[in-house]
Amino acid sequence: MIRPLRIALLASSRYPVRQPFAGGLEAFVYEFARALTAAGHHVTMFAAPGSAVDLPWDVLPVHTFEMSEVSREDPSVPEWVVHETHAYLSVMLDLADTLRDSFDIVHNHSLHYLPLAMARTIAAPMLTTLHTPPLKWLDQAVALPGGVASEFVAVSGFTARQWEPVNGPVPVIPNGINLDDWRPGPGGDYAVWSGRLVPEKGLPDAIAAARRAGIPLRIAGPMGPPDYFAQHVRPQLDGSVSYEGHLCREDVNDLVGGAAVALVTPHWEEPYGLVTAEALACGTPVAAFARGGIPEILDATSGRLAPPDDVDALAGAIVRAAELPRARVRARAEAHCSQAVMVRRYLDCYSGLLDEEPESLSA
What we know:
By secondary structure, this protein is α/β, with parallel strands linked by helices. The protein folds into 2 domains: 6-176 and 338-353, Glycogen Phosphorylase B (Rossmann fold, 3-Layer(aba) Sandwich); 191-336, Glycogen Phosphorylase B (Rossmann fold, 3-Layer(aba) Sandwich). It has 14 helices and 12 strands. α7 (203-213) packs across α12 and α10 (274-281) packs across α13. The longest helix is centred in the first third of the chain and has 18 residues, at 79-96. The mean pLDDT is 92.
């Protein structure tokens, strides 16, 4: 077994890593930190102020600063961009200087370019998990002269293929969830949609498809832009479509586990699709648009796919998915969405970066 490691996890400086989660990335980092700690490693997390601090890991402080009146009046750059850049610049300078010998591994889960651009300044090896496509800022950081002093893994084969033209072949470690935390539910007579209420998640298509399939829809998740909810969601709420709020995991588990089918309707190429894995763990079959990494999670025993943006096809997928045996749906999660397997694979990556013997892994 790999020796106990001192691991720094770099997460979002904008969104706290705590329940109820702002999105899938925050949920992933939270659960990953718990799993690494349970495996005997010492975890220190860099994340937005207000992140959970009642759990057994340390916190790297997020440095803030007071903008001058003149700079605050500059309309060219949003203030949150400036604060985020300052936060990552500060933590990378700390890792290069005062914290230089404090960690064995720095594991980067941020979506900011500075950890990649400054990776060569720190003593510990860096591993970066690619949770997104090659966004412009990340793309340009990888293309810096001399390359980037970080190894990479991608959360799905689809995401790895997107990054291959940028930095060559990328190993894949699919995201995993704690199957003990997501209990199989009894099912019910409604459909469920969970996630961030933002345009790229395609909630209006889920509402339309549920209506055409003749099944009530219950919605849960954090609101994005207020005008999006006001214009595209609230007018559609009625006796058959309800918004349950921004729920903690336990309540999401109950809601998803009590549904006949879960809908996943991205309007972008979803890199992985954590809500898909969560639904399967609840024993709830999934009807989804075939985008991004989602087809890698679902098979014929656990869900039905529809062509992207095809609401009529999605309505048909809802009806067919709801007929699938729930025990086989849960079995798919156990076989392909295990956090334990994911963590062992990451520990093997750490061993390779440290030139140590990896754990043996049986798939």
